[in-house]
């Protein structure tokens, strides 16, 4: 192993470790001997006061104050600012990011590292916003990198355009629609179907407002359309009374100006708006026209011909001691 000169382009601590290893391999073991070797290997253009340096720690401190290292730190920060995340090179990206943080002397300055990672995600607004929220209370480098990976690879955030399934919590059955009509209204039926999701119980979230596909769905988005993937029709509320008192049918129909198909989600763990909707959240599904109606199911059934279906209805309020019948688990369908 050969020794290397210090010219200001490497972090002083990293360089000293290399020289220490070189010295140990060559049976140079005392700090004073190692210090003398270090001094001999410093480029003459590096201007430090050698007479005032008596320990390796003092040497590292002096090298960090030299203009060449200050320029090197600024260069590392510029590299951090220009980094772009490429998923195919994830490990390489993380190694480069942490190396630049180390060289810029911000490796343990968590807020500075957060700012650079946030900037790196600027081309993906939804990921960037999720990152800002989820790292707010993180205080260590390891936690920060772990959370970054979780956000990148374990994306559970529901987005406009996402395929979802909605499981009724009380009965474990999925919100479903098929190409059959209610006998009374001749509208496409909606019911709580099987205990496993199928294409009939897969729904596509459509923004009916200013958001576009790929934008995150938030608790506070009041213009959401739910499109049944199998029939390509939207879930909407009807003024037609169901079999149970004070409940109304929900149906699926083609989107047009006359159908009322705006919905929004309420998070049962928090009433805070502008937080993300995530897979496995327990929610209320609320029809948001001039009046609010809450989606619910129960053990009551209805018939179409000889076929029996578990009823899904809407109601103008959540009834006391019956809250579980209004609860749905939202699941991201891959």
Characterization of this structure:
- With 334 residues, the protein is an alpha+beta fold.
- It folds into 3 domains: 54 residues, no CATH class; 83 residues, no CATH class; 170 residues, Trefoil (Acidic Fibroblast Growth Factor, subunit A), CATH 2.80.10.50.
- It is 29% helix and 24% strand.
- Strands 1, 2, 3, 4, 5, 6, 7, 8, 9, 10, 11 and 12 form a 12-stranded antiparallel sheet that branches.
- α4 runs antiparallel to α5, α6 packs antiparallel against α7 and α7 runs antiparallel to α8.
- It is rod-shaped.
- The two termini are 52 Å apart.
- The mean pLDDT is 89.
Question: How would the blueprint of this fold be written?
Answer:
Layout: H1 12-25, H2 31-40, H3 56-65, H4 67-82, H5 90-103, H6 110-120, H7 125-134, H8 141-153, E1 163-168, E2 175-181, E3 188-192, E4 203-207, E5 224-228, E6 234-241, E7 248-253, E8 263-267, E9 282-288, E10 292-304, E11 307-315, E12 328-332
Antiparallel strand pairs: 1-4, 1-12, 2-3, 3-7, 3-11, 4-5, 6-7, 7-11, 8-9, 9-10, 9-12, 10-11
- Give the rounded overall mean pLDDT: 89
SSE series: HHHHHHHHEEEEEEEEEEEE
Counting structural domains, the number is: 3
Number of helices: 8
- Tell me the strand percentage band: 15-25%
* End-to-end CA span: 52 Å
Return the structural class: alpha+beta
CATH class of the largest domain: Mainly Beta
Question: Helix content range of the residues, please?
Answer: 25-40%
| Low-pLDDT stretches | none
The largest sheet, given as strand count, sense and whether it forms a barrel, is:
12 strands, antiparallel
């Amino acid at each position: 192993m050969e020794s290397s000169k210090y010219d200001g382009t490497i972090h002083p601590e990293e360089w000293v470790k290399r020289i220490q290893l070189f010295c140990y391999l060559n049976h140079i073991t005392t700090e004073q001997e190692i210090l003398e070797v270090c001094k001999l290997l410093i480029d003459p253009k590096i201007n430090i006061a050698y007479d005032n340096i008596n320990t390796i720690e003092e040497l590292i401190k002096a090298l960090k104050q030299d203009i060449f290292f200050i320029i090197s730190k600024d260069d590392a920060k510029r590299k951090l600012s220009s980094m772009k995340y490429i998923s195919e090179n994830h490990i390489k990206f993380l190694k480069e990011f942490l190396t630049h943080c180390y060289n810029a002397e911000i490796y343990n300055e968590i807020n500075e590292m957060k700012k650079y990672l946030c900037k790196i995600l600027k081309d993906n607004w939804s990921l960037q916003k999720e990152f800002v929220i989820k790292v707010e209370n993180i205080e260590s480098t390891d936690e920060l990198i772990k959370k970054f990976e979780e956000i990148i690879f374990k994306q559970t955030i529901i987005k406009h355009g996402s395929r979802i399934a909605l499981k009724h919590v009380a009965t474990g059955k999925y919100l479903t629609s098929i190409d059959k009509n209610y006998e009374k209204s001749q509208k496409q039926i909606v019911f709580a179907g099987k205990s496993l999701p199928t294409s009939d119980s897969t729904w596509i979230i459509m923004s009916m407002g200013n958001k576009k596909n790929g934008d995150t769905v938030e608790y506070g988005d009041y213009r959401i359309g739910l499109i049944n993937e199998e029939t390509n029709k939207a879930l909407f509320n009807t003024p037609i009374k169901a079999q149970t008192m004070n409940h109304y049918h929900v149906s699926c129909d083609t989107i047009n100006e006359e159908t009322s198909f705006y919905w929004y989600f309420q998070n049962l763990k928090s009433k805070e708006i502008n937080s993300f909707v995530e897979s496995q959240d327990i929610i209320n599904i609320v029809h948001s026209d001039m009046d609010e109606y809450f989606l619910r199911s129960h053990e009551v059934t209805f018939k179409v011909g000889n076929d029996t279906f578990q009823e899904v209805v809407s109601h103008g309020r959540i009834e006391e001691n019956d809250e579980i019948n209004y609860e749905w688990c939202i699941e991201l369908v891959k």
